């Protein structure tokens, strides 16, 4: 696998176990990891995660459940998820510093899973951010949440590609930056508001890219992944 391919985490957003396993097998050796979110986890739980990990030819699992609750509850959820052996796990930075600290402490001294704090969802624009009572502009809110989460011990952040350069400059090389809202030139934006091409996102400072539909809806998912890796290499 190339270094460029290793940066790609394919989002498998389906409740169908057979379809998820098919995609995991098709993408073996073509991407660095597979992202499983609430749709899949609600349908299949921990055993489903293990099935996909086994089908994915050693691909790392990014468990994207975006925990957001009181600190004690989030800590319990992290302790329950840790034995699954996932590479990364998400929480919402907007849950506050105490919640972030509780998640990191529950993970313990092991380096995995990386605790990633989600800043502002890529489906939100300035109007939507204001509507839920968060202070904008979006770039300022992302930096505010990112600094708080890193100070509380989070290993990295999830943010749109439009905020990556500012995050990298503010936080340095140690912060792991995972970026959804990435669309190659030949794919549509779907429901994402703040998107960027894969090569641009890596050039801006992203460590890992989360890409779903341009790969999973392709007639040939492995070929789509290779085309995206080529865009990254070209950057």
Description:
Helices cover 46% and strands 16% of the residues. It has 235 residues and is of the alpha/beta class. It has one domain (3-234): TIM Barrel. An 8-stranded parallel beta barrel has the order 1-2-3-4-5-6-7-8, surrounded by 7 helices. α4 packs parallel to α5 and α7 packs parallel to α8. The model has no long low-confidence stretch (mean pLDDT 91).
Chain-wise SSE layout:
Blueprint: H1 3-6, E1 8-11, H2 17-26, E2 33-37, H3 38-55, E3 60-67, H4 71-81, E4 88-92, H5 97-107, E5 114-118, H6 126-131, H7 138-151, E6 156-158, H8 164-171, E7 176-179, H9 198-204, E8 208-211, H10 213-216, H11 221-234
Parallel strand pairs: 1-2, 1-8, 2-3, 3-4, 4-5, 5-6, 6-7, 7-8
Give the number of helices: 11
Shape-level CATH architecture:
Alpha-Beta Barrel
Distance between the termini: 18 Å
Helix content percent band:
40-55%
Order of neighbouring strands in the sheet with most strands: 1-2-3-4-5-6-7-8
Number of self-contained structural domains: 1
Structural class: alpha/beta
Name of the level-1 CATH class? Alpha Beta
CATH topology: TIM Barrel
Radius of gyration: 17 Å
Number of strands: 8
Order of helices and strands: HEHEHEHEHEHHEHEHEHH
Strand content: 15-25%
Features:
alpha/beta; 16% strand; TIM Barrel; 46% helix; 8 strands; 235 residues
Short description:
By secondary structure, the protein is α/β, with parallel strands linked by helices. It has a single domain, classed as Alpha-Beta Barrel (TIM Barrel).
């Amino acid at each position: 696998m190339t270094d460029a391919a290793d940066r790609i985490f394919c989002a498998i957003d389906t409740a169908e176990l057979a379809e998820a396993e098919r995609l995991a097998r098709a993408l073996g050796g073509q991407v660095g990891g597979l992202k499983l979110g609430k749709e899949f986890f609600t349908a299949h739980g921990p055993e489903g995660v293990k099935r996909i990990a086994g089908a994915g030819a050693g691909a790392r699992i990014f468990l994207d459940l975006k925990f957001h609750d009181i600190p004690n509850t989030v800590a319990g959820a992290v302790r329950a998820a840790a034995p699954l052996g996932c590479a990364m796990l998400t929480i919402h930075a907007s849950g506050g510093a105490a919640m972030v600290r509780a998640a990191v402490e529950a993970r313990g001294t092991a380096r995995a899973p990386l605790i990633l704090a989600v800043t502002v969802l890529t489906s939100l624009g300035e109007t939507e951010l204001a509507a839920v009572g968060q202070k904008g502009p979006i770039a300022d809110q992302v930096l505010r949440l990112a600094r708080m989460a890193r100070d509380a011990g989070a290993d990295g952040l999830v943010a749109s590609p439009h905020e990556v350069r500012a995050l990298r400059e503010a936080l340095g090389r140690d912060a792991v930056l995972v970026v959804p809202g990435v669309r190659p030139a030949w794919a549509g934006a779907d429901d994402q508001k703040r998107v960027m091409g894969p090569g641009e996102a890596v050039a801006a400072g992203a460590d890992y890219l989360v890409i779903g539909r341009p790969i999973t809806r392709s007639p040939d998912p492995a070929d789509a992944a290779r085309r995206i890796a080529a865009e990254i290499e070209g950057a």
